[in-house]
Amino acid sequence: MAEDPVIRAEGLSVRFGSKTIFKDVSFEVRRGEIFVILGGSGCGKSTLLKALIGLVPLAAGHAWLLGEELAKEDDNERRALLRRIGVMWQSGALFGSMTLAENVELPLEEHTDLSRPAREALARSKLGLVGLGDAAAKLPAEISGGMAKRAGIARAMALDPPLLFLDEPGAGLDPITSAGLDKLIKDIARDTGTTFVVVTHELQSILAIGDRCIMLDKEAQGMIAEGDPRQLKAESTQPTVRAFFRREAA
Ligand SMILES: Nc1ncnc2c1ncn2[C@@H]1O[C@H](COP(=O)(O)OP(=O)(O)OP(=O)(O)O)[C@@H](O)[C@H]1O
Question: How far is the CA of 215 from the centre of ligand 1 (A)?
Answer without folding.
Answer: 15
